[in-house]
Each structure stands twice: as C-alpha cells, then as structure tokens.
C-alpha cells in the first residue's frame, strides 16, 4: 500500500455481537393485579383483577448483530469516506402476541418472532478548497429496511386499526405496513343502472362521486378481503448534506437534509381535508362531487355571485361515505429541507487581546428555512404514534415545524 | 474455597425471587376482602360498556329507528345504515368487554368456595353478583353475535381456549339462563345504603324475564317478571323525568330496577353518555350539556311522529328548540339531560344509566300474559299504568280487544316509553319486525331516501364477529364468521 500514494488510510472493519434487551417493564412473568374502579353506594369503589396473563417462560430478546465497513482517507486526507453495512437479527422478540379475546385479554408478552433490520450508511467528507478560502462538504446517506421473519406458530398476521386507518404486520413483510382498500378513480353515473343499482362491485351504500374500489380478489364484492398492504413507512434513502465555507473570519454553513421514498399515511386529514360541513377544510372541497339530491341544499347563487367555480374537479370525493382507509390518503414523503443556514464571524484575536477575551463569535442562524415536498400535510417527517408500535408512519395532527431565527454571541474568557 | 462453601447455603434465605411489594394473582383471591375487590372490578368493566361514544348504548340507539341515520356522523361503524362489517370499534368493544367480565367472574367463582368468610351471606351475595354478571355477559353475546364460546369453570390458557368452539345461540342463552337462576337464589332483595346499586335478586329476575322474552318464551318469562312486580318494592315514578335524573339514582320508587352506577365530583367515575345527546355546537343555554358532541344522536322525525298527541314523554325526552350550531330544525334527546349535580366536565355526570326500568317489567309482563293468556284485564292494567304516567288515556276497547291488537298497542307503547334507552333494536329483532320496519325507515326522505334500504337483510339480526377475533383463532371450524359478513 505504500506505493498507492493517494490513499492515506484504509481500514477494514467488521464486528459481530449479541446483545439483549430487557427494557420491557417489570414482572410480566407473573399475572399482575390491576386496579379498576367502580361506584356504588354513591362512592368510588376500588376493584382489582388480573391485568395480564402470566408467562413464566419470559426471557430477554437476543439481537445478533453483524456489521462490516471500511474507512478510507485519500488525497492527503482531503477525502474521507466511511461505509458501513449492518444486519441485525432479533430473535425471541418480546412481542405482544395476540390471544383470543375469549381469554379476557388481547395479547400476552411472549418471546416469539424474529425480525431482521438491515441497512447501510455512508459518510463522505471532502475538503474541496483549503487555502485562504475554505470549502468543506459533508454528505451522509443511509438506508434501513426491516423484515418480519417469524411471528409465532398461531399468528400469521396482525391487523390493527386506529382513527380510520388500518395497518398490517405479517411474515415476509415489513413491520407495520399500511393496509388499505385500493381505489382507482371514482364511481360515475355510468356505473349505475337506471334503478340505482350498481353495475360494478361497491361498498354497500356508495354512490356516484365516491371511490371506485378495486375488487382485489375478484369475487364480485368489495369487503375486508380486498385490503392489501401498500407503501412503506421507511424511506429508500435518508440523507444530509452540509456545506461549509470559510473566508478570513467569516463562516457560512448550510445544512440540507431529506429523504427519498417512503410514504406517510395522512389520517389527520379527517379533520382538515374531509370537507365536513361546518368545518374548516382545504379549499379543494369547494369542488367536491355534489350528488343531485344534495344540490338544492347547496346555494348555487354563491357560484354566480362570487364567481367561484364549484364544479367537480374530478378528484375530490363525495363527502358522503367519506373513507380514510384507501390509498388516496397515503402520500409520498420525499422531501428536501434547508435545515439550517448559519453565518458567523470570529473577531480577530488582535482586537480581543485588548479586552482580555480569548474568543468572540457573533452568529446568526435560521433553522427550518424551507421544506420542498409534495406532501399536503404540515410536515412529512413524522410518526404520530411513536416508533415502537405496529402503527408507524402516520400523520395525525402533527404540529408544523416552525422557522427559527437565532442571533447569538459566543464568548470565551 | 471453604469460606464460599459456608456462605452459599446461607444466601438462600436472602434471595427471594418473588417480589414482596407486588400484587399478583398468586396471593390474591384468598380472603373476603380480596373477593370484594374482585367483584368491584366486574362492575367496573360493565361501566366501560356504557361509555358515551363507542359504548353499546350509543351503538344500539344508532342502529334503531329512534335516531336519524344520515344527518350526523353517529360513529356507529355503519350500523345506522346497515353497512357495518366485522371491522367495527363498537362491536369489538362489546365482544372484548363481555369476555373480560366473564373472565373476572370465572376467577371469582372457581376460587370463592375454598375460602373461609367471616360472613357466609357475604359470600353468597358475591357469588350471586358474579353469576348475574356472567349471565348478563352471555345474554348480550348471544343477542349481539349469536353463539359464542362458552368459557366457564376454569381459567383456560390461550392454548386451551383455541379448541373451545363457538356454541349455538340457544346454548349461549342456556348458559345465561342457568347463571341468572343461580344468581336469583343467592342475591339479596335489597342492599344497604353503602351498597346501593349492586345487583339485586329482582334485577336478576327482570333480566332473566327479558331474556326469555327475547327467546319468544313468554310462558317462561312470566313468573320471573311477576316476582319483581309482586315484591312490592318497585313502583312507577309519578313524574317521568324522575326516572332519569341523578337526584333519584337507585331509588326503587322511581322506576329503578337495575342501573349502571356513576358518580360526579370529578372522581373518574362520571357518566359520559348525556353529552352525546346534544349537538357539537350546543350553546348550553338550557343546561342540557356542557358542550355536546360531534357524535350526537339526533332524534329521528319517525320517532317524533310515533308519539301520540299529548304524550308527556315527548315533552320530557325530546326538544326541537335547542340552540347551537347545526341544532336548529332538528330534534334532540333531552331524556338524560336533567341533573341535580352540576357536572364539572363532559365526563363528570352523576346520572346513572338504566339497564332495566320498572315500566319495562310491567310492559314485558303485559306482553307475556297477552301471549299466553290473551288480553287479560291484568295485562291491560299494566299498560294503562304506564300510559297514565305519560298523561295518556287508557287503551281503547278496540286496542284491548284481541291478543293481536294488544300486542300492537304494547309495541307502540314500548317505542314511546323507551326511546333512546337501547331497547328498540332488540325488540324489533325479537318481534321479527326489523326488516320491514327498518326498510320503511330508511326509505324516508330524511333517512337516505332509500339509498340504504337494500342493506336491511335478514342476516343483519346478528352483528359480525369482530375480525380481530377471527384473525386470532385462524381456524374457521372453531371461530367462524356469521353468514352474510
């Protein structure tokens, strides 16, 4: 390697390990008593009953992790490149295995199941210009994916629902996928015969202007068997790019970050993007499909008096039979965000010596400058139900990111 | 080496694997006070079932022709338009909660006989309460879903439960009947004031009578209903509004046979249903609710026109003068809105919710007598007592002329008496009337104008078994879905 002059450092590394996870709450191997209050005699009465099923075989989860990577420094250390690939298999996963409701419980904590998390990370730093004027670029990229390998002998899949959306976790798929009834366009008058009977499979009660659902299993009916896993709450790529420029005592840094791919399930839309009467909604609902029998109730004079086009835009569904559990609520979460711009000035040391200050930096920065994305919600970077559940990737009324302006001074005495 | 050899045996006494400060079922169910706590947890679960928005009372009203099916979002998973499926929050809650009640009752009943009580009657009472609550759970499971797995006499593990298959609806009811009967022999006729509201013998009698009526066995229902009437404890409240205000909670002279208990004072034990009766924009001017709800049930125009002219119950139970956003022009239910304790929050109402009222016992008894003996004077008198409280005249001679005409009159009376009490749907099912009645209802211009009538089919007498349970069992020969879903 001595003769390869452009390589300054090349390190190959790999690691293998097993670790355990015991952060699961205490004493679940026993059947604990919970308190449940009732009332009689006009007084609150304490009650007690089992709050979980005992599992004396409970033990730690085991994660077998494997990692391989290399670090490379080249061109007089002007380029630094790190790469890692990892694969972690977690077995004896501490999992709330569903049990029949007839037991009086919903699930029991059991060591069952195996999940694989794998991915790669890249870290690249380049000192592009290194004279009086310096310019450094830092780029990091990562990709993570997971797969459910096993779920226990009696469990093939878990379907859960919350706030109008459904989720599925099954063997061979990702942990927590969106589970939706696919829709393809809208029901037109030609989909119904003269007596109002549907000529295509529909959900009971649907009418013109509602979603035209896809009969996935082609059985002539639209029901729960037509739901399919859809999209992914994990992005294909997560990235961050920092550019730092120094000239004399000024420094300017710009941080961009974002993700490519990944989807988000906009369940919060039921509050602001559903066209319910009497509620503030996105403006597109002015152009919702309006069935004939509702037209007398909608003031058509409004249209001519105010010049507002209230005709159907072809893509806003009839608010009757409003549905959230379709693919129309799953949006691409790709975004680019200018995360931070900071401009700072370091006072020259000659001036500082006179006032006995070692270092003085004045800076101004803006955080969350702008986000470029096609997502109609407030921010595509969200998971309203946390990160440890089987209902990932939901936006349910996430608060928008605020743009923050900071001015500051840094003294070192 | 020798030292460690000496120390090790000494350690055994110090290392105790069982945490002493934790309460577990290993040390529970061993004393009288333990069983008092255990039965209280059973009542706690019954309270959950009457939660305002997703509880069974709200759900059953939405399903019936008491409430409008299309003007508001009733959060009834489509039950109001007969588009409900196996994926519904309300029915899943009913199924799950009933089995929690059954599990808690079983935990008591399999252990209580082995434990020495200071007070033998206290043991009998707790057993009676556990039998009655388990009966009530199987009673409801049978009505909602048809046959359900019968889990009794043991705490089965999940592995064992997988092989206990669904029973038939008749078998489920048979379990409920046997449990009600066991309860009736051990429960007290009355409780002292510190226990007011617990199940009494007569509550179990009335519940069994109601189950027999659902099964169309009026001859079997009669003696149990008569036992309640002949106890002399109960009477109709002179004022209809007294049946529902918290001022008379648990008062047997005010129609109260069995009620779900609630108390105010921000205790966490407040009732949440009353707020579901006023619309979301409710201004609060009449004091009927604090803020109303987006899940408010609107009284249907069909229900309003079902009242006879001059029916006092219409004045008490309904109002079309409610002010608030979206309220004008519609009729809302004020039956549960009168209160003595002023709720401090929407979840702090003190009003109990009726499970069985005395007027129901009288009307069911009249119906049972009519079905077995014809329109006897006793049956007619019971109906007239209820009508007179509603400031209505006695039944005409034509109405009481034949068993058929009296049954029609009783059906009409039940509708006006029990509006918004969750009884209408199961009445329509047991009379075999729900298909024509609900089809006509959904044909009305303000009930969808016929768009949903096609959904009212015979298989809808039962709700779908929750999909979550079907997925858990996997095996359709043990847990299968009801036909049509």
SSE-based structural type of chain B = mainly alpha
- One letter per element, helices H and strands E, the order of chain B comes to HHHHHHHHHEEEHHEEEEHHHHHH
Helix content of chain B: 40-55%
Mean residue pLDDT of chain A: 86
Major β-sheet strand ordering of chain A? 1-6-7-10-11-18-19-22-23-24
| Radius of gyration of chain A, taken over Cα atoms and rounded to an integer in Å | 29 Å
> Reading side by side through the largest sheet of chain B, how are the strands ordered?
3-6-4
Global outline of chain A: globular
- Give the termini separation of chain B: 72 Å
Helix content of chain A: under 10%
CATH C-level class of the domain at 33-187 and 459-475 in chain B is: Mainly Alpha
Straight-line N-to-C gap of chain A? 46 Å
Q: Mind telling me which CATH architecture of the domain at 33-187 and 459-475 in chain B this is?
A: Alpha Horseshoe
- The CATH topology name of the domain at 33-187 and 459-475 in chain B reads Serine Threonine Protein Phosphatase 5, Tetratricopeptide repeat
């Amino acid at each position: 390697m001595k003769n390869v002059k452009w390589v300054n450092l090349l390190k190959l590394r790999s690691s293998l390990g097993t670790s355990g996870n015991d952060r699961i709450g205490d004493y679940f191997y026993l059947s604990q008593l919970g308190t449940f209050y009732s009332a009689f005699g006009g007084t609150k009465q304490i009650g007690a009953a089992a709050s979980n099923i005992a599992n004396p075989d409970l033990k730690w989860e085991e994660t077998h992790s494997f990692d391989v990577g290399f670090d490379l420094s080249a061109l007089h250390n002007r380029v630094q490149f790190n790469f890692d690939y990892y694969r972690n298999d977690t077995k004896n996963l501490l999992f709330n295995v569903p049990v029949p409701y007839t037991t009086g419980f919903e699930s029991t904590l059991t060591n069952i199941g195996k999940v694989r998390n794998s991915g790669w990370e890249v870290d690249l730093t380049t000192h592009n210009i290194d004279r009086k004027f310096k310019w450094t670029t830092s780029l990091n990229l990562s990709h993570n994916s997971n797969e459910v390998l096993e779920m226990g002998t009696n469990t093939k899949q878990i379907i859960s629902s919350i706030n109008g959306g459904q989720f599925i976790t099954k063997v061979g798929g990702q942990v927590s996928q969106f589970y939706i009834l696919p829709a393809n366009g809208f029901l037109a008058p030609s989909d119904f015969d003269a007596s109002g009977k549907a000529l295509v499979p529909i959900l009971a009660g649907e009418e013109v202007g509602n979603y035209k659902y896809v009969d996935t299993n082609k059985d002539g009916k639209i029901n729960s068997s037509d739901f399919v896993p859809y999209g992914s709450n994990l992005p294909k790529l997560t990235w961050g790019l920092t550019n730092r420029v120094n000239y004399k005592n000024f420094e300017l840094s710009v941080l961009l970050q974002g993700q490519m791919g990944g989807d988000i399930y906009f369940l919060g839309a039921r509050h602001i993007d559903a066209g319910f009467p009497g509620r503030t909604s996105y403006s597109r609902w002015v152009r919702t499909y309006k069935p004939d029998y509702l037209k007398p109730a909608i003031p058509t004079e409004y249209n001519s008096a105010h010049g507002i086009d209230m005709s159907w835009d072809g893509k806003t569904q009839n608010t009757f039979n409003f549905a959230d559990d379709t693919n129309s609520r799953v949006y691409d979460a790709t975004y680019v965000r200018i995360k931070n711009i900071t401009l700072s000035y370091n006072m020259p040391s000659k001036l500082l010596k006179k006032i006995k200050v070692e270092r003085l930096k004045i800076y101004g920065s803006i955080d969350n400058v702008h986000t470029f994305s096609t997502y109609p919600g407030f921010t595509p970077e969200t998971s309203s139900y946390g990160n440890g559940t089987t209902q990932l990737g939901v936006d349910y009324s996430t608060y928008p990111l605020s743009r923050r302006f900071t001015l500051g001074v840094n003294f070192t005495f | 080496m020798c030292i460690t050899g000496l120390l090790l045996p000494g350690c055994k006494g110090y290392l105790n694997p069982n945490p002493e400060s934790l309460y577990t079922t290993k040390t529970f169910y061993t004393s009288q006070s333990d069983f008092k706590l255990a039965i209280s947890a059973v009542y706690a679960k019954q309270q959950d079932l009457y939660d305002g928005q997703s509880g069974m009372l709200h759900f059953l009203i939405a399903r019936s022709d008491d409430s409008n099916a299309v003007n508001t979002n009733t959060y009834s998973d489509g039950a109001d338009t007969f588009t409900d499926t196996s994926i519904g929050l309300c029915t899943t809650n009913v199924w799950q909660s009933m089995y929690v009640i059954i599990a808690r009752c079983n935990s008591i009943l399999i252990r209580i006989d082995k434990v020495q009580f200071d007070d033998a009657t206290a043991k009998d009472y707790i057993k009676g309460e556990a039998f009655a609550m388990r009966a009530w759970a199987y009673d409801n499971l049978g009505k909602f879903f048809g046959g359900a797995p019968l889990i009794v006499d043991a705490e089965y593990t999940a592995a064992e439960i997988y092989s206990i298959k669904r029973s038939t609806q008749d078998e489920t009811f048979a379990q409920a009947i046997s449990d009600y009967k066991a309860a009736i022999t051990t429960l007290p006729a009355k409780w002292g004031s510190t226990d007011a509201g617990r199940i009494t013998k007569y509550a179990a009698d009335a519940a069994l009578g109601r189950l027999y009526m659902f099964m169309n066995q009026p001859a079997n229902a009669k003696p149990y209903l008569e036992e309640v009437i002949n106890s002399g404890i109960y009477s109709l409240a002179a004022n209809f509004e007294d049946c529902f205000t918290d001022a008379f909670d648990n008062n047997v002279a005010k129609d109260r046979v069995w009620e779900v208990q609630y108390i105010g004072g921000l205790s966490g034990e407040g009732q949440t249903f009353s707020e579901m009766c006023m619309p979301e924009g409710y201004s609060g001017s009449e004091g009927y609710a604090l803020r109303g709800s987006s899940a408010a049930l609107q009284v249907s125009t069909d229900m309003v026109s079902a009242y006879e002219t001059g029916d006092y119950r219409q004045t008490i139970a309904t109002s079309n003068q409610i002010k608030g956003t979206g309220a004008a022009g519609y009729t809302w239910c004020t039956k549960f809105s009168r209160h003595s304790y002023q709720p401090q929050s929407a979840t702090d109402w003190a009003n109990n919710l009726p499970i069985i009222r005395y007027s129901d016992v009288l009307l069911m008894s009249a119906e049972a007598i009519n079905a077995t003996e014809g329109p006897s004077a006793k049956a007619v008198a019971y109906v007239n007592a209820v009508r007179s409280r509603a400031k209505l005249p006695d039944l005409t001679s034509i109405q009481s002329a034949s068993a058929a005409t009296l049954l029609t009159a009783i059906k009409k009376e039940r509708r006006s008496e029990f509006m918004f009490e969750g009884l209408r749907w199961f009445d329509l099912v047991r009379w075999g009337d729900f298909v024509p009645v609900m089809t006509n209802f959904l044909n009305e211009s303000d009930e969808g104008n016929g768009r949903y009538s096609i959904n009212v089919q015979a298989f809808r007498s039962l709700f779908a078994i929750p999909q979550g349970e079907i997925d858990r069992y996997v095996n359709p020969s043990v847990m299968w879905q009801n036909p049509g879903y």
